Amino acid sequence: MGEHAETGAHKPVRFVVAALILRSSGDTPEVLICQRKPDQPMCLKWEFPGGKIEPGEGPEAALARELDEELGISAAIGPRVARIRHKYRNGGAVDLQFFTVREFTGEIENRIFNDVRWAPMTTLPDYDFLAADLGLIHDLAEGKLL
């Protein structure tokens, strides 16, 4: 067998971090959600802000960098509250780590998304989220997490 025997057989796992940016609006906790643009893969799906961990970067540093790039904020990254490994039908896989963010400086600025909005946690199942996020969405909406 040649050195390329495995090429295309398995896609590498992508290591990704995402933020649950939280605020209270009266008695209702809200979280910031973001909608992908029409020209992106999995277009118009909702997700939490974040992105790939670069080589040599820790998860918290990667998330702080992504939030600055995507939203223009300097965030205090809180504890990791969930970790999910999801396999997509196309054979790709993602290892997602979710961290809370309760404090940040700067005004949230939509730099890359189709839409950015605060959503009450109980309404999260009403949005068309990425498949990898669905279990977390239901746990958040039902008050099982946070």
Short recap of the structure:
The protein is 14% helix and 40% strand.
If you had to describe this structure to a student in words, what would you say it looks like?
- This is 8-oxo-dGTP diphosphatase.
- Belongs to the Nudix hydrolase family.
- Its cofactor is Mg(2+).
- It comes from Edaphobacter acidisoli.
- Residues 12-142 form the Nudix hydrolase domain.
- With 146 residues, the chain is mostly beta strands.
- Helix content is 14%, strand content 40%.
- It contains two helices and seven strands, in the order ββββαβββα.
- It has helices spanning 59-71, 134-141, and strands at 13-25, 28-35, 46-47, 50-52, 74-87, 93-105, 115-120.
- Strands 1, 2, 3, 4, 5, 6 and 7 form a seven-stranded mixed β-sheet that branches.
- The chain is globular and about 45 Å long.
- The model is unreliable at 1-8 (pLDDT under 50).
Question: What structural class results from the helix and strand content?
Answer: mainly beta
Unreliable stretches (pLDDT < 50, length at least 5) are 1-8
**Helix and strand sequence:** EEEEHEEEH
Using only CA atoms, what is the Rg? Answer: 16 Å
Provide the residue-averaged pLDDT.
92
Alpha-carbon distance between the two ends? 50 Å
> Total helix count?
2
Shape: globular
What fraction of residues sit in β-strands? 35-45%
Largest β-sheet summary: 7 strands, mixed
Summarize this structure as a short list of keywords or feature phrases:
about 150 residues, mainly beta, seven-stranded mixed beta sheet, 2 helices, about 15% helix, disordered N terminus
